[in-house]
Amino acid sequence: xxxxxxxxxxxxxxxxxxxxxxxxxxxxxxxxxxxxxxxxxxxxxxxxxxxxxxxxxxxxxxxxxxxxxxxxxxxxxxxxxxxxxxxxxxxxxxxxxxxxxxxxxxxxxxxxxxxxxxxxxxxxxxxxxxxxxxxxxxxxxxxxxxxxxxxxxxxxxxxxxxxxx
Length: 165
Ligand code: PNS
Description:
alpha/beta, Rossmann fold, 6 helices, 5 strands
């Protein structure tokens, strides 16, 4: 597995400015970046996976990092199986706080046991430290303005298309 190929997994429901910041930073570090929408059975989804993929594609294009980024989805098993399939040697996660460290560390250790794959934690810009998809979902559902928290493509979609979701 190549240390130059990385996977950025997540629910991305919806993608936030924090996600885009981590994707931009990871794209600067690796030769090939797979941004992967993973179905998380523990979470009640707002958007269908296909919609999340479209929003990620648009947001990544708008952010100007589309060149080496591949957007995909995975619901067929372990995340490390996808990483093996694409020869990725690294998983990248954004860390906003100690809460994220506590949540991500056991997964990083399990993934290393499963497939000898490293997890790299990146710190987003502090401006995005308090942004989460769950808060964006709540603000959008209650009719609030999510523009400060999400990429323009996501703001446009939530403003015009998702009120009924
Ligand atoms: O954005 P999220 O919801 O915090 O992302 C969590 C995600 C999808 C990255 C996490 O649930 C995950 O890695 N799922 C893959 C399932 C898996 O491989 N589990 C075993 C090792 S932890």
